Amino acid sequence: QDYSIHYLMDCHSAPLFSHLHIPNVRVNAWYLDCSPDCRSNPAIVCESDAFSSDPLGFTRSAYGVSHDGDCSEEDTIRDP
Is the CA virtual torsion 9, 10, 15, 16 positive or negative? Predict the structure, then answer.
């Protein structure tokens, strides 16, 4: 199975792949950008800063959500 995990956390606080060793499962981990490139260029707003200043707006923009709504079952991974 393939899963995507999106960490909406402070910069460098996501465990990334060190905690994602699951047999027979591929995990695509994505985290908020706070790279030196966006930190060094004042014209660029880092994803981590955008999320911190407006979590709902960032989430709507990143996921293309234009309304208030709950996540679908496919959007959420639950423990069995």
Answer: positive
Spatial neighbors of 44 by CB under 8 A, at least 6 apart, are 37, 38
The residues, any chain, with a CB within 8 Å of residue 57's CB and separated by 6 or more, are 50
Residue 56, phi then psi, degrees to nearest 5: -65, -45
Residue 66 token pair: 């234009």
Tens of pLDDT, residue by residue over 32-53, are 888 888 889 989 899 999 999 9
In the prediction, which pLDDT does 40 show? Answer: 92
Q: Does residue 41 contact residue 18 with C-beta atoms inside 8 Å?
A: no
Closest CA to 33 of 17, 19, 57, 51: 51
